[in-house]
Specification:
single chain; Zinc Finger, Delta Prime, domain 3; globular
């Protein structure tokens, strides 16, 4: 919107308007942060996932942008892997397809779908001014519980 453009112009002053500057002024999160968060949750590394969420919040990122970005990331991950990377015409670059396909190897579609359902719950909670950091931390914990529940148990030898 024009207001966002004006924010970027004011922020950059006489300098060049760059992607980093626009992301900073609008509180947008870099895509690599979402890849790192999801990967960390799949390892799983709970302390690192909590640290990543804390870093996003401390950096003053816009809570709504964090949630929307995470929703978009998970949707893209699910789409690319459900379509077996045959996503011509859906607007993905070759690099995005490779990155999402790689992450899809460690993120089962049923778990990604579960995560998307939780994101909808978080969006609902934010309309009631619930604490964003708590909601995201709870998202990590619930995802890890669901991941452990879905993981096949080793068969006992007789």
């Amino acid at each position: 919107s024009l207001q966002n453009l004006q924010f970027a112009i004011d922020f950059c002053g006489e300098g060049k308007i760059t992607l980093d500057a626009v992301q900073q002024v609008l509180g947008v999160v870099d895509d690599s942060s979402y890849f790192e968060l999801v990967e960390t949750m799949m390892i799983p590394d709970v302390p690192k996932a909590m640290l990543l969420i804390n870093q996003l919040m401390v950096k003053g990122k816009n809570a709504e942008q964090i949630i929307k970005g995470l929703e978009e990331h998970l949707r893209n991950l699910l789409t690319i892997n459900a379509c077996r990377q045959k996503v011509e015409g859906l607007g993905f670059t070759e690099e995005e397809i490779k990155r999402y396909a790689h992450q899809g190897k460690i993120a089962p579609p049923i778990l990604v779908s579960y995560m998307l359902d939780m994101i909808i719950d978080i969006q609902r909670a934010l309309t009631y001014n619930m604490d964003t950091q708590y909601q995201l931390e709870n998202f990590v914990i619930k995802t890890l519980i669901e991941r452990a529940r879905q993981k096949p148990k080793p068969k006992k030898s007789q």
